[in-house]
């Protein structure tokens, strides 16, 4: 009787050994891709990931921490799953002026600012492709509270596909909810608006968070 080493099986002639294709047994052997080898198999990961110590899972490479990126000294490196991007220094469009490295302000004393949001705050986040829904992904709240005022939270722009909605969680806060899975790679820019209304002094104003979401190519 002929026996074969592990990873091989006896051919129909009963004397020769042929390789077993372990990758054909299950699509769950590897998180990304299985490669058959003589007598065994190995897992590989897409660019931007490394093979985890379990030899099957893929972990993101943080190019911003490793220094393996092309960002200049003026730019800020932002890592996301499977990649990174270089964020340019903030440039506020008139009549806005920069008040910090991620916030623009439009002075109430400027007549050109009358119908514009008082502030625009720039934020960034990453999101895995095809993330299960519904999912709470971002929190927004009033940092300054005025007596007699109430707040309205809404998505002002960027939600043409109806993948998101704002759920008000208190009178001063709301949560951005992902309602439909988004396939990447994709970059989504949302303007999240908080409207402040005070009927006592007949005041109405708004502030915006311009949230850029980097959706990864892969679901891990």
Automatic annotation (TrEMBL):
Superkingdom in the source lineage: Eukaryota
Subcellular location as annotated: Secreted, Extracellular space, Extracellular matrix
Any Pfam family the entry gives: EGF_CA
Record keywords: Calcium, Disulfide bond, EGF-like domain, Extracellular matrix, Glycoprotein, Repeat, Secreted
InterPro entries: ECM_structural_protein, EGF, EGF-like_Ca-bd_dom, EGF-type_Asp/Asn_hydroxyl_site, EGF_Ca-bd_CS, Fibulin_C, NOTCH1_EGF-like
Keyword Nucleus appears in the UniProt entry: no
Domain EGF-like: 19-59
Principal place of residence: secreted
Keyword hit for Glycoprotein: yes
Protein family according to the UniProt entry: Belongs to the fibulin family.
PANTHER family: COMPLEMENT COMPONENT C1Q RECEPTOR, EGF-LIKE DOMAIN-CONTAINING PROTEIN
Protein name stated in the entry: Fibulin-5
Gene name per UniProt: FBLN5
């Amino acid at each position: 009787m002929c026996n074969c080493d592990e990873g091989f099986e006896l051919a129909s002639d009963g004397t020769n050994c042929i390789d077993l294709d372990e990758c054909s047994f299950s699509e769950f052997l590897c998180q990304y891709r299985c490669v058959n080898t003589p007598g065994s198999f190995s897992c590989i990961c897409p660019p931007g990931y490394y093979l985890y110590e379990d030899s099957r899972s893929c972990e993101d490479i943080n190019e911003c921490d490793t220094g393996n990126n092309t960002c200049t000294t003026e730019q800020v490196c932002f890592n996301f799953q499977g990649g990174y991007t270089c964020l340019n220094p903030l440039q506020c469009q008139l009549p806005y002026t920069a008040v910090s490295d991620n916030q623009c302000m439009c002075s109430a004393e400027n007549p050109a600012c009358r119908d514009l949001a008082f502030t625009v705050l720039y934020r960034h986040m990453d999101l895995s492709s095809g993330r299960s829904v519904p999912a709470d992904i971002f929190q927004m709240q009033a940092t300054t509270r005025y007596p007699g005022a109430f707040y309205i939270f809404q998505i002002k722009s960027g939600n043409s596909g109806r993948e998101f909605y704002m759920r008000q969680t208190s009178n001063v806060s709301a949560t951005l909810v992902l309602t439909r899975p988004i396939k990447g790679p994709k970059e989504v820019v949302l303007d999240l608006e908080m409207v402040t209304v005070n009927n006592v002094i007949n005041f109405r104003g708004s502030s915006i968070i311009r949230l850029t979401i980097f959706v990864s190519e892969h679901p891990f």
